[in-house]
Structures are given as structure tokens and as C-alpha cells.
């Protein structure tokens, strides 16, 4: 966040500040998704005797993966849009 604010204060373009923001978001995405998948994987392993709980955890794992894909696609599309607007 400090990088984004310092880019704007130092007179950098909005495109580079936006690019820094998307880089920041994607750099936080990897550890958060890894932690969520590790916790949900442990919960899934320990809930194999309870089929209803296992089904809910499998759904949550799918939601984490889909959410990560959506964030990656959104950052890619937004970066491309900003780069095309600058041209």
C-alpha cells in the first residue's frame, strides 16, 4: 500500500500506480490461498467419517479455487485495460 501511495505522491502515472496495486494484490493472493487450502485440506481429512461435513468442505475448497481464478483474471484484465487506455 505504501508503494501505491508513494507512486502517486512522486508524480508517477495512474497506470503505474494501478499496476503496483495489482501486483500487491496478487502477491497477497498466493499465501492466503495456500493457507486456506491447507486448513480446508486438514478439515477434509479429519471429516471423512462425516459425509455432510466433507461435502461442505469440498464445496469450500472449490470456492477458494474459483475465487483465486477470478482475482487473477480480474487483475489481468484490469491491467490490460489500463495499458490500452494509456495508448
Automatic annotation (TrEMBL):
Pfam families: TrbC
Stretches that traverse the bilayer: 27-45, 57-77
InterPro entries the UniProt entry points to: TrbC/VirB2
Domain of life: Bacteria
Alphabetized UniProt keyword annotations: Membrane, Transmembrane, Transmembrane helix
Name of the protein described by the UniProt record: Uncharacterized protein
Amino acid at each position: 500500500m505504501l508503494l501505491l501511495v508513494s507512486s502517486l505522491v512522486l508524480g508517477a502515472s495512474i497506470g503505474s500506480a494501478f499496476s503496483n496495486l495489482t501486483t500487491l494484490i496478487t502477491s497477497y493472493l498466493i499465501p492466503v490461498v495456500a493457507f486456506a487450502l491447507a486448513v480446508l485440506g486438514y478439515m477434509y481429512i479429519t471429516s471423512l467419517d462425516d459425509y455432510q461435513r466433507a461435502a461442505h468442505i469440498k464445496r469450500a475448497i472449490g470456492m477458494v479455487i474459483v475465487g483465486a481464478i477470478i482475482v487473477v483474471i480480474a487483475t489481468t484484465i484490469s491491467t490490460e485495460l489500463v495499458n490500452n487506455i494509456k495508448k
